[in-house]
User: What shape does this take?
Amino acid sequence: MATDRPQSDREGNSIAFLQTDMNPIHAYHYHSGQPIKMTIGGGLVKSIEPSERPDIESYIAPAFWDIQTNGRWGLSFSDSSITVDQVAEIVRAHAALGTARLLPTLITAPQSSMIHGVEMIAQACEQYPDVNRIVAGIHLEGPAISELEGYRGAHPVDAVRDPSWFEFEQLQRASGGRIRLVTLAPERRGAIEFIAKAFANRVTIALGHTACCDLETYKLAYAAGARLSTHLGNGVAQLLPRHPNPIWCQLGLDDLFASFIADIHHVDLSTLQSMIRVKGWERTILVSDFSPLAGCAPGRYGEWEVEPSGKIVVAGTPYLAGANADLTRGLSNLQRGLAWLDSRIFATVTTNPAKLLGFAEPRLEPGQPADLVLFRRSESSLSSSIELIATCVSGEWHPASQHSSAD
Assistant: This one.
């Protein structure tokens, strides 16, 4: 999806502060609310002590994990022409958006395109140590999803197919073993068997873009090893059976994590809050689901369009084609309406995605990686939101992009 149109946020995101400019850091601890003084060195948190500075205005928290991000600036990880340096550029841009660990995500495409995409990600990781540090794995969103209109979303119908362990092994070899997450529809032929094999091979399975209304199928998928609902509330048709339907069935499985796109375009705030109440904070994960057109100026780009509001759609349809809002925006939307800074929302972009994928949970403790976000609270009479200041990735500070603050 390469484009020659002007890119609105492509410049200036790779400039890092000198480490000495922000060491030690004086800020409020995001969870306790206590003022702390933190020193970092060698890519690690070296010490945390109480701070007595009277002029502290910012908060500090672990940096974000984004397990679903498809590209940027008209570039898709699924493009058959994407290059190693383009992969590196997209990955590095996330440091200006609060994210220190991510899963580049490939959507449904012919096998040759998907192999090319994972090979380019693998080569970028092997060539650039900083990219390797940020990439926690690869997410395959498809190709074994529903072929039905609406449930399929923006995925190309001619590339949708049943799950194949042979195809997956080809992709896993090409990726250098980096595929950590696969989204599929459990009703596809052979899906339950595929889930069981993936689970045995320590690959996490997510359920998404599914038209299945049979609770027993979802139970079988969970029993086989499925652990996540991908962007719950989306990837479904405009008109659904009242009940059961794919949303209710997945909400009813208490042990499934659920990811959500909290840009308000994908799920309205009231519905999002209701679904999170059902899942609980401990099973909720926010994702950006960045579209390949994220960061692009409004306009039409081939079959897709960026509306003036920032919403990205399949041109001429009501179907969304990924998102354009970063995780800071999503957190602010969750925060909206709360009178205090609720630290539980940060678990949705730190602890929970790490736990889902089997990684150690990010914490603000000495000895932990210096992957941090510094932010302010921006308050009005009705709500409190979050304004990103800078992100620390492996001990190196990056100023926030002008597009990383909430509306």
